[in-house]
Each structure stands twice: as C-alpha cells, then as structure tokens.
Write a structure and sequence with these properties.
heterodimer; A: 393 residues; alpha/beta; five-stranded mixed β-barrel; five-stranded parallel sheet; 11 helices; rod-shaped; B: 59 residues; mainly alpha; 2 helices
C-alpha cells in the first residue's frame, strides 16, 4: 500500500523530533571511555563513548581546543554534557556534546576546593569582616548569564517587589572556560558603578557551577570594596563563593528577596511613622498651649497681686506714721496743758485773792520766817489789790 | 532711690516714730521725710500698674 508509506526523510525527522524533545535525552551527562577521536580541520571533534553495555558516536562542535587544553587522550574515561541528536541524512543517532571533562578532574577539582576552603579557614579569610549590605541598594549590579532563567526570575521578582527599581546587569558566561575571567572582570567593572553586587546563576551540575569554587573568582569577591551577594545554584549547592561572600543567598531569587525591599512595605512603614510623628507633635503643641495659657493667667494676676500687696503695705505705713506722729504731738500738747494749769495754779496772785498776803524784804525777796528780822526792818506787804510799806516793831 | 529702699527707709521712720523717743523737731523732720517717701512710692506703684495694663492691652 504505497499510499500509506511514509517518506524515509520524514520518518527520520519524526524520529529525531521525538528523541530531541525528550528531556531526559536532550539534556544529560554521559560517561564512558573515549575512542575513535578525530579532531577535524573545521575545529569540530568527532569521537565515540563506550562502556561494557553500549556505545554512541559523539560530536563536539568547535571542541578541538577543549580536548587539547584538558589534554584528553583516547582510552580515558570522560564525561560529556549534551543531548541526543539524529543526523537525518544518514539516520545515524549521535550524542551532541556541549562540554567534555575528564572524569579524574572532577575528583581533582573537589580536592582543590577542599584545599582552598581549608587554606582560607586557617588564614582567617573565612572569618574576615563582611562588608555590610545597604538597606536599600541604590545602584544594584547583577552579574549573571545573559538571557538566563536565573536572570529573568530575578528581574520579575525585583519588579514585583519594587516597580521601576533601578539596577543594572553585567552579562557574563557563568560556565565554561571563559566564565571565571568574565566574572572577575565584571566584578572589577562594577566597583565604580554599584553599592551592591549580586553574583548569581541558576542550578546545574557541579561542573557547571565550578567557576564559583575557583580561587581566582573567590579572591575577586573577597577583594571587592562593594558588598557581594553570592547566589549560586539551588539551595543544596554550597560554593566556596557562598562561604566567603558578604552575604550568601540560597538561590538568585532568594538574593533578590534578601536585598531588594518590598516598596509598599516601606511606604506603609513611613506613613505609619509619619502618623505617629504628627500625633506626638499635636500632643506636644497642645500641652505647650495649655502651659502658655496657664502662665498667661498667672502673669496677668501676678503683678496686680504684688502691686496690691505693696499698696496695702504702703497704706499701712502711712496710717502708722500718722498715728505715731499724732501720738507724739498729742503727748506734747498734754504736757503743755499740764504745765500751763500747774503754772496757773501756782501763780501767787491766785493765793492773794483768797485773803493771803505776801511779805517782801528790801531786796524784794519773800520773807517766809521771823528769824533774821530786826526791829525797824522795812517790809513790803503785798495784798490782792496793792501793797503796803511797813516796818518791824 | 529704688522702691525697695524707699520702703525700707519708710519702715525705719515709722518704727522710730512709734517708739516715740524723738523730740518735736526730729519728729517733724521724720514725718516730712516719710510723707515724701510715701508720695514717691505711690507714684512708683501707679506707674507699675499702668505698665501692666498697657501690656495686657497689647496681648
């Protein structure tokens, strides 16, 4: 039934599509012994990986350099990262590698990672004083892979937390041989334009994340004058950069959550504080008004009370003085009156009026006794209405 | 002389007059001095009162 037959090219294409779209096959790491290695003039590398159970042809486009630099030889056990592909023209299935790594080197890397941690633990670098993270970063710089899922996660999250938050991105390769150099350069570039740096990348295999275990990258983080947040991989991944950074975030999203505040929270907080200040100020002003009012009343009453007291005092003195003076004058007058009545009562003329007479001698002195008188002494007798000259017989 | 000093002098005068020891001439002299002081103290008080009233109006 030729009508039901399918063109072979279509068939192979269909087969390819179903293989390539299978996530398990499209993105995996396989390990086996390297054989049939051809480093083509085009720069592409063709080889096979084999173990006791199976074998597959592989290609690493532009891979010659990678083989040469890592000094990988046929017969070695290697890891290839990549996915399945089918060359439609021949129907041949092959593994399209994106990266290769000798198996031994992973153990070596792990060893050097431990050595690095140990070295920095001993020399105190691990316990170095961390640069404080600004409460609200004003010039945040994110160093991460361009177009990566980690970056779009962070961007979305920042926008949710603080719409129009100002930050900049320095795109770098976060895995592969150039990653370390680019990350170090990005940290250097960010020094003059940032107050906080996030170095981040999403999850991956230990090899993918390896740049963040390198001494050179970690040294750049330690030496940075600007605080750096290390946000590498998933929660379970702990990189050397996490240990020595100023802040460790478990994931890139977590980094954003920890350094970019939720704007609305701050706005709410500020308005609450504002309300409290207003309230306190009102209360303060009110109490001051009352105080002033009270003082004003006291002041208004004060001087008059004092003046009235002074007036009373003055009046009292005035009265007292008048009294004292009156008393003095009165006493003087009484004494005068006493003298005058005494004078009047002792006036000799008043005695003569009652029938008494007064005898004076030649000198005009009163004679009060017969002693000393001789016969013939002239005397003057004074009576009420005249005097008589006479002599002693 | 300040108001306070005037008042103090006035107290002295009254006390000495009340004691009554002084003779007439001295009494007259003290009384004259006292009367002058009373007048000036009254003036001071009135001036102070006027000032207070004025400040109240300005409030």
């Amino acid at each position: 039934m030729p009508g039901a037959a399918m063109a072979v090219g279509d068939f192979v294409s269909l087969a390819r599509m179903s293989l390539v779209n299978e996530p398990l096959l499209a993105n995996s790491a396989i390990t086996g012994e390297l054989s049939k290695l051809t480093l083509a003039r085009s720069g592409h590398s063709y080889f096979a990986l084999t173990d006791s159970k199976g074998s597959i042809d592989c290609v690493l486009f532009g891979g010659n350099q990678s083989f040469e630099q890592q000094d990988i030889k046929v017969g070695q056990i290697i890891i290839a990262l990549g996915g399945i592909d089918v060359y439609v023209k021949t129907g041949r299935m092959q593994f399209k590698a994106s990266r290769i790594q000798p198996v031994e080197s992973i153990g070596q890397l792990e060893k050097s990672r431990k050595a690095l941690i140990e070295k920095w633990r001993v020399d105190g670098t691990m316990d170095r004083a961390r640069t404080p993270i600004p409460q609200i970063p004003k010039r945040l710089v994110i160093i991460t892979g361009a177009g990566s899922a980690a970056l779009s996660d962070m961007q979305r999250l920042i926008d949710n937390r603080w719409p129009n938050f100002a930050y900049s991105i320095i795109p770098v390769l976060v895995q592969g041989e150039q990653a370390a150099g680019q990350i170090i350069a990005a940290i250097a570039q960010a020094q003059s334009i940032s107050d906080l740096i996030i170095v981040g990348r999403g999850g991956g295999s230990p090899e993918d994340l390896w740049a963040f275990n390198l001494e050179s990258v970690c040294r750049a983080i330690i030496d940075s004058k600007i605080p750096i947040v290390s946000a590498i991989g998933h929660e379970s991944d702990l990189m050397v950069s996490d240990l020595i950074a100023d802040l460790r975030a478990s994931t890139p999203s977590n980094a954003v959550e920890r350094v970019v505040p939720i704007k609305q929270d701050l706005v709410d907080e500020i308005s609450m504080v504002g309300d409290r200040i207003d309230f306190a100020l009102d209360r303060f002003l009110q109490s001051q008004h009352q105080q002033i009012q009270k003082l004003r009343l006291q002041l208004a009453a004060g001087p008059m009370r004092g003046l009235n007291k002074e007036k009373l005092r003055l009046n009292l003195l005035n009265t007292k003085m008048d009294k004292a003076v009156d008393l003095i004058f009165g006493t003087q007058k009484n004494r005068l009156a006493g003298y005058s009545s005494l004078l009047i009562s002792t006036n000799p003329k008043r005695v003569l009026e009652r029938g008494y007479s007064m005898t004076l001698d030649l000198k005009g002195k009163p004679v009060t006794s017969i002693a000393g008188l001789k016969q013939g002494d002239p005397l003057t007798v004074v009576l009420k209405d005249g005097q008589v000259e006479t002599e002693v017989k | 002389m300040t108001y306070a000093k005037s008042m103090k002098r006035l107290e002295e005068i009254v006390t000495s007059l009340e004691a009554g020891g002084a003779d007439l001439d001295a009494t007259l002299k003290l009384f004259e001095e006292g009367a002058t002081l009373i007048k000036s103290c009254k003036l001071s008080l009135e001036a102070a009162e006027g000032k207070v009233e004025q400040l109240r109006l300005e409030e």
